[in-house]
Description:
Strand content: over 45%
Order of helices and strands: EEEEEEEEEEEEEEE
Structural class: mainly beta
Radius of gyration: 15 Å
Number of strands: 15
Helix content: under 10%
Number of helices: 0
Largest sheet: 4 strands, antiparallel
Amino acid sequence: AGVAGSYHACVVLGNGSVQCWGLNNFGQLGNGGAANSSIPVGVSGINSAVSLALGQNHTCALLRSGAMQCWGAGNQGQLGNASFANSAAPVEVSGAGLWSSVAAGMGHTCAVLVGGTVQCWGGNGDGQLGNGSIAKSAFPVAVAGVNTAVAVAAGQTHSCAVLRSGVVQCWGANTSGQLGT
């Protein structure tokens, strides 16, 4: 399945490898370099991806094992590896547990853990991490009050989760009514 970010795109191939193309100024193509590419380039070390999430300048891959790796811009902590550094190659998202889905916003990432809780990391100026704070985080933090999620979505600076009951809960920026309240 193919996914597009702001200025880059990626696809998971049938063998679980990932290829990306487009802007690469933060390493968001994951090939270890910083040169833009108009043709698909292979992401270093990914061979069991099942889904992808692309933010403005970062990329995350959910692996068959339930682990997650991210690469590209890390200035907001959106790679989830307890660092605010960029990475042109995939890095493991910190924390315990198995991930079941992932979504990326402009500078933040959210994911559902097997069992239904949601954790987010990265930029948080509008509360898009859902932890009652506006401080950015370079490691996953729990979204308050969400424990039956089946899917997650991320906008520019807001996030939403679909619960088992079919209810949708959202948090973060609401300047245009995007939280649906």
